[in-house]
Amino acid sequence: MHCDTVWTGARLLTMTGEDVGLVEDGIVAATDGRITHVGPRTEAPAIHARETVACDGRWITPGLIDCHTHLVHGGDRAHEFELRLRGASYEDIARAGGGILSTVKATRQATEAELVASALPRLEALMAEGVTTLEIKSGYGLTVEDEGRMLRAARQLGERRPVRVCTTLLGAHATAPEYAGDADGYIALVADRMIPDLAREGWVDAVDAFCEGIGFSPEQVRRVFEAATAAGLPVKLHAEQLSNLHGAELAAGFKALSADHLEYLDDAGIAAMARAGTVATLLPGAYYFVRETQLPPVEALRAAGVPMAIATDCNPGTSPLTSILLTMNMAATLFRLTVSECLLGVTRHAARALGLAHETGTLEIGKSCDLAIWDVERPAELVYRMGFNPLHTRVWRGK
Description:
By secondary structure, the protein is of the alpha/beta class. The protein is built from 15 helices and 15 strands. Helix 7 (218-230) links the parallel strand 9 and strand 10. Helix 6 runs parallel beside helix 7. The chain is globular, with a radius of gyration of 21 Å. The model has no long low-confidence stretch (mean pLDDT 96).
């Protein structure tokens, strides 16, 4: 068997099978950026590689995936952080003209080049911790032109750095200031113009919405989802973060890739997600940052067999977090996920939440050779440590 590169002497977490797919003495081989062999050394065929990389007992996981970010935006919201420390709630700030709309103003004022430049350090922080795939949402433009500019900036990031970027149109993030008092009118713009126009231009991989009292009603979200479906795009949803509007159940009805946040998710929503195969994306950074007290129903999700992804939710207002490793620690300490659940949450289940299970998230023949090689003695260290990065090498598409 001939290949471009083979990594030998490694301990593997393939993320396949019932758990994390542990292989104590394994190899990974790749050609043209694709995995051509993976498994125990003793079961490998004779391999002739142009390059052999000795891993010296290090661990190899799939490249990590951050499946929910708002990485591209203008400005910051440090002032609102101060207000929350003084007792203001997320809803108080939003209703006073802060929150998402303050970032909308800063984002509209930024050029596409400025949006790319400001997002690059955030992207590089994630890449430095082994991230090889991430989602970037729009949602801070709230016009067809500004949302398109955000999506183009996100795609540029994927062109400037060796990383896979999935773009999600979050036009239904908040009502645009021009439509104040007319949320239905704004949703009509999103459904009738924004989604079809930007989908036609090829900038959109999926469509998202914010189903919440300070966001949009289930009826308004349904209209967004119907427009997405007509455009041939998969959907996902910010659901049950601050209250239970049964958004997850609605999303599952559209076979959503994921429903995200889910602190107030009920049993009916869990059952609907289980039937639809919708991933539960948990966002412990936001839970921590806004000092939420309602835990997502992890045990019920686990019992129902709903796959759980975890992500940074990197955004300027409620989760200014650019560490996927710290996110895993938070998921374990705050939400009581196991080490295996945390690791699956940033690999296999995160890939599924992006509709990329066929492409990445596990170490399997035919998938993209996206690897993270770690200087750790046991996988639990990737979840246990805070503020310490044990990444030895990041591999994207075999390089």
